[in-house]
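Final report, closing paragraph on structural work. Over the funding period we assembled a curated collection of sequence-structure pairs, and we close with a single example.
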Amino acid sequence: MLKNKSTLWIGLFVTAVAAFTGGMLTGYFYKAPSIPNNLAVYGTDEQVSKVQTDLYISFDSELNQKQQLEKLSTLISRYKFCNLPIEVKSVNNGIATINLDEHPWVKQTNKPPSIPGCSGRSWRYVYFQGSAGGYATAATLARTFVQPDYEGDWIKGVRFSYLGKPIQDGDWNHISLDGVITRDNLP
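Its predicted structure, as stored:
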């Protein structure tokens, strides 16, 4: 009986050492890109009390800045905002102009859609509403496009528009996406 327990413990120890060594070798030979060279998708914690990095991504180095922004807008739309349209309109003098649009069926009415799931999501009726939700939306969009922790060559700031019109101070009670947002004035 004692021999079987000893054999079991020795086997478990050897397995643990082998797994640890394999993991160390894998990490040595297959290094992940360093985080400062990756772009981040930001969000907030569940209590919307702090901004956090939800995902790191990298793009082909041959893409120009506008192409990277377009891929970033597609990713953030899918990952954070139920595929709501986010379009990079331009990049001029280091300032990106991003248009937040609605699905066609939301544009056709002045009331919230009654469609369940992501198809019923809307900037106007969901993501721009409520102090916590509005803050989470503004922080996610602004920080993800401005990339405050990115050390490479990136845009200086971002300007948001909604349905093709620049977002102005006072347009919405719970979001702060007006003017040019830079690393110095992030929500």
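The chain has five helices and seven strands. Residues 35-182 form one domain. We thank the funder for supporting this effort.
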